[in-house]
Automatic annotation (TrEMBL):
ABC transporter domain boundaries: 2-232
Coiled-coil stretches: none
Source domain of life: Bacteria
Pfam families: ABC_tran (PF00005)
Keywords, comma-separated and alphabetical: Amino-acid transport, ATP-binding, Nucleotide-binding, Transport
Full protein name: ABC transporter ATP-binding protein
Length: 239
């Protein structure tokens, strides 16, 4: 579905993403790595939102269509949906307005009505400002906004960050349902429990490159891997 080859990203002259290659099929992929290894930069480079003055080179092919270095609106239209770290909502827009400005058509697969069916809580909060929502509601809105671009692949940057465990559980189920319905999923997660619940394939980034690939099963059963790849104390010891 998604084929990334030799992708590089530069913030000004800083060469942050270095020759990243990665393929994504129907199976969800979790992207892990210590802080500052380039996970968010990869999400931004794939989505075309690196910002002015910054540069992306290399190939990003979605079902054969070349999107590398293309502007964000082209990439979104082609089918890469982006759910940014920190949710990035507007204080001045209500929930409903966040969904309406995406400009989905009534005959699109995803409409604001369908987003409200997926997240009934958002329907109850339609007229509330985006930044007045709880963390979990903000994540729902950020996902809903991305779904309105009718993505073939969803790129999610730390969806569970700052959320209570019960909220995270519900969120995991929703994301799994989307993936089971055929949406490609690349998810950055620092939370090992969330990463391994969402994906069996786990790609590890070190210093702006893909260092290795492992599986959730191996990662969960190997505290040394957890320490090496995430720089955190293993799950069992942290509990
Ligand atoms: N806008 C920017 N301008 C310059 N350098 C940046 C910018 N954003 C990130 N960087 C640098 O790029 C490198 C990769 O950062 P990135 O945020 O992609 O890492 P990350 O793996 O997502 O880390 P984290 O888990 O802390 O978000 C870091 O050295 C960071 O300081």
């Amino acid at each position: 579905m998604l084929e990334v080859t030799g992708l590089n990203a530069y913030y000004g002259t800083a060469h942050v993403l270095q020759d990243v290659s990665l393929t994504l099929g129907a199976e969800p992929v979790a992207l892990i790595g210590r802080n500052g290894m380039g996970k968010s930069t990869l999400c931004k480079a794939l989505s075309g939102v690196l910002g002015p003055g910054n540069r992306v080179t290399g190939s990003v092919r979605l079902e054969g269509e070349e999107l590398g270095g293309k502007p964000a609106h082209r990439i979104a239209k082609a089918g890469i949906g982006y759910v940014p770290q920190g949710r990035r909502l507007f204080q001045s827009l209500t929930v409903d307005e966040h969904l309406l400005i995406v400009g989905a058509r009534r005959d699109d697969a995803w409409t604001p009505e369908r987003v409200y069916e997926l997240f009934p809580r958002l329907a109850e909060r339609k007229h509330v400002s985006g930044t007045s929502l709880s963390g979990g509601e903000q994540e729902m809105l950020s996902i809903g906004r991305a779904l309105l671009t009718n993505p073939k692949v969803l790129v999610m940057d730390e969806p569970s960050e700052g959320l209570a465990p019960t909220v995270v559980e519900t969120l995991i189920e929703t994301i799994k349902d989307l993936a089971a319905a055929g949406m490609g999923l690349l998810v950055v997660e620092q939370n090992l429990g969330v990463a391994t619940s969402l994906a069996e394939r786990v790609v590890v980034m070190v210093s702006g490159s893909v260092a290795t690939e492992t599986t959730s099963q191996d990662l969960l059963s190997d505290p040394e891997q957890q320490k090496r790849f995430l720089g955190v104390e293993p799950l069992a010891e942290a509990a």
